[in-house]
Amino acid sequence: MSGKLDYLNFLVERQCVELSYQPVVFATSAQIIGWEVFLINPYETGYIDLKLLFDIMKENNLIVKIDKAVLKRVLDVLNEKKDIFENKKFFVNISPISLMSDDFITFVTGILSTNPMITKNIVFEISLRSCENLFIDDLHYTIRTLKKQGFAFSVENIGSLGFSLDFISISKPAYVKLGREVYRDIAVDSIKSKYLHSFLEFCDDSRIKVIATMIEKMEELLSLLEIGIEYLQGYFIMPPSMELKTSVSNDIKELLVETIENQRKHYFLSTSNIQIGTLCVKVPSVEPNISCEKALEILEQNPKLHGLVVTKDSKVEGLIKREKFLLNLSTMYGFAVYSKRPVALLMDANPIVVEYSTSLHDVVKELSAREDEDIHDYIIITKDGIYEGVVTIKDLLRKSTQLEISFAKHLNPLTNLPGNLLIEKEINSALEKERDFYIFYIDIDNFKPFNDYYGFEKDDKVILHLASILKEIRMDWQEKVFVGHIGGDDFIVIVYDKAEVEKIAKKIVEEFDSSILYFYDHCDLARGYIEAKNRKGEVEKFGLMSLSVAVMKVVPGKFSNVEEISNRLSEVKKLCKQKMPAAI
Fold first, then answer.
1. What are the backbone dihedrals phi and psi of residue 567, each rounded to the nearest 5 degrees, phi first?
2. Helices (H), 478-518
């Protein structure tokens, strides 16, 4: 302990901390979005987190001093390579004691006065284990103060469910980190799986990104991807290193890309593209002249069967439904009357029979017209009229629900409009059907200065406002229009009716222009501009927000894939932007 104390005192006196960095990876793109920062302890092997030395630092009043030294070192790294780290995050572990310290807050305020853009890169990370015995109200007040200044927060060590949800609900962090104790064995532990899914839904609703940490095995990684966690960290992906590595290994990249692609193929197809036959399983079939007594023996030997398919020459004649069949035999004279007679007398001669290639969508439609079906009843699958297998109605509905959830996962979390994958699917579908269509690429001019000037909460309201305008367009034109949200202030509108293109574009612009004034303060509105820093850091005058709408026609044969369309659309967007002055 004395060696550690000597080392900590040395760090404080010399301000010369050495750090290591462990990447946080966005699974969908296999790209590093940031790094968690660790303090290196030269007296022991490996890397340590500051919380491991919490007690000794607290006893010797070193917590705030160490946190300041670590943050200062991160700032030095950022300033050395601004271009490389422009859009990257550094997750810096900060003790709640420091966050509630006037000394630390003064230190952070001093940093902001000379480098206000640093808030884009720094994420203050808090361990919930170190918060439970503190004055939480004071901590929440500090968090709110720093968030108003532009900083983001992350919380880790999710433990007590009640405390964790309460803390997260109030502090509203940008990120939550889950350790192995939370997700271990989710594939076999149904209670833990339900808890985790509920927690993920809570985070989705709260627009909180979830990062799974401590990933050490491929099985863990695959399980996490399966339940929809997109942000990953752990030794399996990349161990901590003193070198700031900006990309993952090719092996990890290929694994992520392949897994995500397989998930898209398996889940992301709509119900209209999935064949019912892919869900079917084989159950015993019987001839129509078999005795009811023999059929009863088969059912008793196979208690999990919900029925028996009745076939003749491999073609479907009917279905023995277990519950109804047993009910008929259990009556006072039922067994005596039917036991020796053929099952054809008690079979359903009009079961649901569909071809293997029938889509889930069409089967669900047929079910909606038949109100007397039980969820355990079989849908019989045939191939070219020959019996192939069965699917229970329950399994069909479960699969349909999975697809709906999968679709919802690919909606933009802020606007609930289709995101990039759904946009790509819509365009691919139009190309395959060789349909003429028009693409609008819409973004907001002078949006970034507005964001810098008024803050992220108000810029979210602007994005939501534009999304509401586009949703109204979709409602008014129905199947003639598709609306998607690429991200930020970038939106896509696809129009399938040439006669409506100009009318739709005009309405979008007019609706936005007539309503955007309400988002400005009266003084800024009166003078017609705001003052904000440009990309060079210079203060400049920027006019009120307006829309750029780049329109491109797509005809069959001109483009072969989404990438070609995207590249051409980018060119059109640049031409559109060149005609719109960014500042005045």
1. -65, -45
2. 501-515
